[in-house]
Amino acid sequence: MRNIHFIVNSLSPNAEKAHGQIVSFFEGRVDQTSIKLSKYKGHAVELALASISEKADIIVACGGDGTVNEVAQCLVNSNVKMGVLPIGSGNGLARHLRIPTNIPSALEILGRCDCKSMDVGKANDRYFFCNVSVAFSAQVVRCYDQMPQRGFAAYSRAFLKAVSSFKYSTFELEEHNGTLKSTPFVLLLSNTDQLGYNKTLTPDASLFDGKLDMVRVEKSNPLALSIFMFFAFFNKFPPFTRVTREQLEEVRLQSSAKELKIQLDGEILELDTNTLDIKVLHKALEVIC
Questions:
Q1: Rounded to an integer, what is the distance from CA 113 to the centroid of its chain?
Q2: Closest CA to 173 of 119, 215, 127, 130
Q3: pTM for the whole structure
Q4: In angstroms, rounded to a whole number, what is the distance separating the alpha carbons of residues 108 and 41?
Q5: How many CA atoms, within 13 angstroms, populate the side-chain half-sphere of residue 174?
């Protein structure tokens, strides 16, 4: 007996197409199928909580990483399984799990219902499933939020805008190796090998190893950082750039600023604290992949 609920981001250009193919694929295959449309930021959380109260066995996030994050927030350490139908833009988590963006192929994976227990990141009181970051990448996402369009072209424009508006902050990092000072251009902790669009700064990251992969690039001259960004676009690290990479289970970041702006699974958050405690929860979410 299976009760599968689909939460579809109605703003996705493929939402209507996905709706029809879901109905066609699962008709007669399961006991109950429910399709709900997420219409605004935070709505998928409300719908997922309602589906849990309605005894859903599986809840499928149909959208990009933002929709996945909202649905998955509700399912951590629960018995409800999560599925992903990637009809968003970046689709970082789906790409890491090798879930195709082709809707019929993704539905075939959901139909088989093969599950794995994946790791979940936690930043203060918020869960994340792809990555969390401060410094330049957070500024890119902040600029992207201000763009009227979505997609890779909008990310490119946001990137250029962030180059001219980014300001450095100093952080104190407390981890298993001790405490250090950092003025980072890049400070990213990732649970996956994806930033979206098949771009990565953490090619060895895994959802199943009980570790977060941290990448840190310190403040440097504009030429060196420009070369770094050029190589990073092609998923490579230039050997002459100061890049620190390590795996860890937890870290504390304390900013010199009174308030902290972070990027979490593609969403910009402004915290009323300058301290960020980040850790990994091993095998905390059941996902169909």
A1: 22
A2: 215
A3: 0.87
A4: 29
A5: 7
Q: Is the CB of residue 175 less than 8 Å from the CB of residue 226?
A: no
Quick one: tokens of 278? 């980040």
- What is the mean pLDDT for each group of 10 consecutive residues in the chain (289 residues)? 90 90 86 91 96 96 94 97 92 93 95 95 96 84 66 68 78 88 92 82 93 91 76 71 87 89 88 94 97
With beta carbons less than 8 A apart as the criterion, state whether 60 and 18 touch: no
In the chain the domains, ranked by start, together with CATH numbers, are: 3-113 (3.40.50.10330), 126-282 (2.60.200.40)
- CA atoms in the 13 A half-sphere facing the CB of 166: 22
| Dist CA 142 CA 217 (whole Å) | 20
| 233: exposed, middle or buried (Cβ count in 10 Å: 0-12, 13-18, 19+) | exposed
DSSP for 166-206, written as a single string: -----EEEEETTEEEEE-EEEEEEESSS-SBTTB-S-TT--
